[in-house]
Amino acid sequence: MNAVPSRSEVLEGLVALYFRLNGYFCIRNYLYHRALRDFAIQGASGLATESDILALRMAHQVEELPNGAAQQNDPLLVVPVDRAKTDCVIAEVKEARIEFNQPLRQTDGSGLIQSALKMFGQFPPSEFAASCVGDCLARELHSKLNKSEWDEFPAVVEPHRGVIVRMVVFSRCDAVYRAHRKFISLEHVLDFTRKRMQPAQVCAPYTRDSRFSPWRGIERVITQVFDEACACGRPPMTLDELVNEAMRYCKSSAVQDSRTDSD
User: Fold this and answer.
1) How many domains does the chain have?
2) Backbone angles phi, psi at 27, to 5 degrees
């Protein structure tokens, strides 16, 4: 990754890495496409909005290393197996406010939520007809995310298939609505992910085998920042320090690459 990332890209990459370390398959920057009939009214970009991450985890997921050590998942994120077999998460990374994008919240936002549910592939197309299971789940989620308070993550469960769909915001500890809406703090995500990258931890060898490039994109940059901090004996870093170091690393790599290309 040579281009210098934005602050939001670094934090979204951190959350994607957190999902990965907890056994989720992820789609980043999921785009909700507009219907052709919307173009004349809303413009011709072809997009209604986006979700930072769609994440899917199966009930019996386990990641075991050759020595038998198992990666430990975070109970703050992972749903117990007795609650659901498949966990589908629509995630948003917002530093300042614990909320989803306005198009998802507006009157016809349940249609966009349906699009995300269809991407998870847990319900056949016929179940998204009016008043069928998929349609009802999307409408219920839409209603819950529009409430002023969230004692739990906005979620719906389809018990016959053992599927839970949750909408989770990742934000700073001092974000607006923090006292009234359940969320996962970016500070917690940073702490969990950083600890998993330290020497003697079960995933640390992933970052140190020079024969391969196991992490790519912004995740590779983040793990490199963790490695450098650990090698220097630095104390745990803040979110701002992570972002600044990631940008510095990418800028340095871009300069180095430009020099190599000119040689």
Assistant:
1) 1
2) -115, 120
